Amino acid sequence: MAEGKIEEEKEGAKDVDYTLDEAAEEEEEDEEERKAQAAAEEAAARERAAQRQLMAIEELVQTERNYLKHLQLCTVTIHSNLQKLQPPPPNLENMFQHIDEVMDVSSRLLSLLDQAQIHHSNPKYLETL
C-alpha cells in the first residue's frame, strides 16, 4: 500500500513537471510572438515615416516648380506689360533687378531636386537632398 502511494506521488510529480514544461514552452512562444509583432510594428512605423518623407519631398519639388513658373510669369507678363505703359512706372527696373538671378537659382535647385528624386532608392537619398 505504501508502494502504491509512492507510485501515485511519482506520477503526480511527473504530471506537475510536464505541466510546468508546457507552461514554459507556451511562455516562450508568447514571447516570440510579442517580439515578432513588435518588429512588424516597428517596420510598419519606419515605412510610414519613409512615405511621409517622400511626400514632403514631392511637395517641396512641386512648390519649387510652381514658384519658378510664377517668377517666369511675373517677368514675362507683368514686367513687359508695365514697360509698355507710358510713362513706365518709376523704379520699374529696380523692382525686377534681381529676378533673373532668383529664377536661375530656383531653376538650378529644381534641377538638383529632380536629379536626386530619380535616385530615391539610394540609401543616402535623404542625405543627398
Strand content: under 5%
The DSSP helix count reads 4
Can you count the beta strands? Answer: 0
Radius of gyration: 36 Å
Query: What best-fitting shape do the alpha-carbon axes yield?
Result: rod-shaped
Organism: Cirrhinus molitorella
Protein name: DH domain-containing protein
Biased composition (Basic and acidic residues): 1-17
Domain DH: 52-129
Fold and architecture overview:
With 129 residues, the chain is mostly helical. It is built from 4 helices and no strands. Helix 1 (2-84) packs antiparallel against helix 3. The radius of gyration is 36 Å and the shape is rod-shaped. The mean pLDDT is 82. Residues 18-32 have a biased composition (Acidic residues). Pfam families: RhoGEF. Residues 1-47 are annotated as: Disordered. It comes from Cirrhinus molitorella (mud carp). Residues 52-129 form the DH domain.
Summarize the structure.
With 129 residues, the protein is mainly α. Helices cover 86% and strands 0% of the residues.
Keywords:
129 residues; DH_dom; Dynamin-Rho_GEF; mainly alpha; DBL_dom_sf; DH domain-containing protein
What's the SSE blueprint?
Layout (H helix, E strand, L loop, with lengths): L1 H83 L7 H4 L3 H20 L6 H4 L1
Helix pairs in contact: 1-3
